[in-house]
């Protein structure tokens, strides 16, 4: 499958840098690409080099006055508003160009799929799912996920499923397509009562003409791999089967990891790898193999993100890496030069068993409450029986 995959990359994507000690540090991308190369994941891969997204494409999602504010913000000597200049979204040099290049990366990935040249495409620098039409939010200036989906809707696709596994609710993408029945948005995230942005409850179901196309699966702090996977498999495959998407778009943030400093779920790198393999299977089963992949959040920059996203690249390329694979010595040495006191893992996994018990059988588990809530709220809107474990 490696020759049927588009991997978007250009070192210029590291220019999306919020500066200083901001947690959204592009070093995570640099170290991921370096680790993937060190393990041979990218051998023979010819990268898709993105162009900066044009204003017309940004305008698919964002208001012209907001795009103008982003462009002018580094030169402004006053409060630019629009969520810019905050602790989460500081103004930085060349902010418009860097942000529009990230969008251009996801557009390039979408075009690769639409043109028929590839079945899968990945932009690790993308996944900026919080940006709203008129403002920046949650480290996200422009919403590349939503722009790419909008472009696909105008270029041969009319049923798109967006699946967000970041620890934070995919609020920006949900907002853009809340009234559009052509787009199914599914977000698994930490419960909104316990984590920013405070949205993503089960009752957010879509607008009047799109009821059931907004699906939210809020999970309790401390949720581990087995519970996460139980909730996922009890809801997502049935919804995809009913919706019949032509392409699966996924935001693959890794801030669900137990070591992530900004959230409270408790997944492992092994769990992330299992999620990616499941997404690949679902794209093959329900979306004709068409799979558009973006990155997202992830703030344990050295120990977690490079390993998890190297597994993501490997999965997209059908070059799966065993979790027992040793980290390359030269890669580990380069990381220690960046952070001499870091204690790195020795292998590509965390040694966690990701086996889980499927919903509908065996003993009751705490996660079953949210499973029932989601199924009861959403399944009837798709003609599914919420009480039938076969659905």
UniProtKB/TrEMBL annotation:
- Record-annotated Histone deacetylase domain positions: 22-315
Does this entry carry the keyword Zinc-finger? no
User: Example GO molecular function term?
Assistant: histone deacetylase activity
Per the record's keyword annotation, is Nucleotide-binding included, yes or no?
no
GO BP annotations, alphabetical order = acetoin catabolic process; epigenetic regulation of gene expression
* Pathway named in the protein's UniProt entry: Ketone degradation; acetoin degradation
Keywords (A to Z) from UniProt: Acetoin catabolism
Kindly give the Gene3D superfamilies that the UniProt entry links to this protein.
Histone deacetylase domain
What family does this belong to?
A: Belongs to the histone deacetylase family.
Q: What is this protein called?
A: Acetoin utilization protein AcuC
User: Its encoding gene is what?
Assistant: acuC
